[in-house]
Design brief:
single chain, 201 residues, mainly beta, Barwin-like endoglucanases, 2 domains, 9-stranded mixed β-sheet, 7-stranded mixed β-sheet, 14% helix, 43% strand
């Protein structure tokens, strides 16, 4: 599993506005999902009530700008970001992004990402799942054992099996990236997890 802290995805046009004409993102470290990386570039997010500095850009550039926050981040900035899947930006709030060279004002694009599991089609077949199914994840490590429900399954040939939680969810359990969790179904008759069918890191 991975704990996802606040970050931004930028278009190439926004990269150049923030960091200079012709600027290309530089790889700071690769992420577990193939082709994704944490960039060296950092930005500042400016909301109605506050600022968040040293926010990491995630590469490569995308077709649309997107900012992913935790609920705690929303409070700091004074923004109400809806719970959404990545890329679902309809009727989302905007924000000001500052870089070392310029700034970009987004009219939309700020979300609090729904917890989700990336998996390949082969993983989904083994687990009996399909894209956009909802499952539960049981946290067994440590002393704060709990069940996360409403975990969205995201299936793509480019994905590696991995659960993504935001920093608030990780802090609630004391989990760190790389921890094991148990993938389960939800029993609708009692609201609890009832059958384990896989694991995710």
């Amino acid at each position: 599993m991975a704990i996802s802290v606040r970050h931004v995805h930028l278009t190439q046009a926004s990269v150049e506005t923030l960091f200079g004409a012709g600027h290309l993102l530089h790889v700071h470290s690769p992420l577990s999902q193939p082709g994704q990386y944490a960039a060296e570039e950092l930005v500042t997010l400016v909301g109605p009530k506050g600022r968040l500095t040293h926010v990491r850009v995630i590469g490569p550039p995308r077709a649309e700008d997107q900012v992913e926050l935790s609920h705690t981040d929303e409070i700091v900035l004074g923004i109400e970001a809806p719970l959404r899947e990545s890329g679902d930006l309809t009727d989302t709030p905007g924000i000001l992004i500052e870089g070392p060279v310029g700034s970009v004002t987004l009219q939309r694009g700020v979300i609090c990402a729904l917890r989700h599991i990336h998996m390949s089609p082969a993983d989904a077949d083994v687990l009996g799942l399909k894209n956009h199914d909802e499952v539960a994840v049981v946290v067994m490590a440590g002393k704060r054992r709990l069940i996360f429900g409403d975990v969205i399954v995201r299936v793509s040939p480019s994905f590696r099996l991995e659960l993504h939680l935001d920093s608030d969810e990780g802090n609630a359990t004391g989990l760190q990236s790389g921890a094991d969790v148990v993938l389960s179904e939800i029993d609708p008759t009692n609201g609890g997890a009832n059958s384990t069918n896989g694991r995710s890191r």
